[in-house]
Specification:
The chain is an alpha+beta fold. It contains three helices and 14 strands. The longest helix is centred in the first third of the chain and has 26 residues.
């Protein structure tokens, strides 16, 4: 009887300790399959060389932890996603040089006449509206629309935790969770563009490579 009582007390204490441990591990994204690339430099592959992807930002980008068929994600609520379309359509120039010995230079996205990301207000009545973020192809056709809720949409947009980051709300602190769109799937299905990632763990560089998909 005493042993059973002690085991019960031990189980209760263990359960109480596991609750905060779970939330701490969740903050570091342990239970999700993606990781935000804040610990890497984000680069673009141009003819086999890596160039700095700025103003694409590493902390707004994510990738699958698993190497097999690794997907690339980017914050859909950030205007920088425009530059990913510029990369897909090769609307950029490269500027060799710079002080980073691990990159060949930078990418310049200034020469483009297309707006691939636009927001739209959808009015429910004269007072209330919701914001929709539309993504366009080079022909001006909408290829994806996202209700800007800040959450996943159970389609291409997923809610991903930025590991190690937390936010304070009225109910306390919680893991920093933001909406990221699966760029790999979007570009493959809508633009016929393959998006591949090369991860250099030694030099902490993730390089994006985009090419026209081969005939399927």
């Amino acid at each position: 009887m005493k042993l059973r009582f002690k085991l019960t007390i031990f189980a209760i204490i263990l359960g109480m300790l596991m609750i905060p441990a779970y939330f701490i591990l969740q903050t570091y994204g342990i239970f999700q399959k993606q990781t935000v690339l804040s610990d890497y430099a984000l680069a673009v592959d141009v003819k086999g060389k890596s160039y700095e992807a700025w103003p694409l930002i590493n902390s707004f980008a994510a990738m699958d932890k698993q190497e097999d068929n690794r997907q690339f994600y980017y914050r859909i609520d950030m205007s920088h996603i425009q530059y990913l379309f510029n990369l897909a359509y090769r609307e950029y120039e490269v500027k060799p040089g710079g002080d980073n010995p691990y990159l060949e230079g930078t990418v310049n996205y200034e020469h483009t006449d297309h707006a691939y990301v636009q927001t739209e207000k959808k009015y429910e009545n004269a007072n209330d509206f919701r914001t929709v973020l539309n993504l366009y192809d080079q022909d001006g056709q909408v290829i994806y629309s996202y209700d800007n809720t800040g959450k996943g949409d159970k389609q291409l947009v997923q809610s991903i935790i930025h590991q190690g980051m937390s936010r304070t709300s009225g109910s306390g602190s919680e893991a920093a969770r933001d909406p990221y769109i699966n760029i790999t799937a979007l570009f493959r299905d809508k633009l016929n563009i393959d998006v591949k990632l090369t991860v250099d763990e030694e030099h902490k560089v993730v390089t994006i490579r985009m090419n026209k998909s081969e005939a399927r």
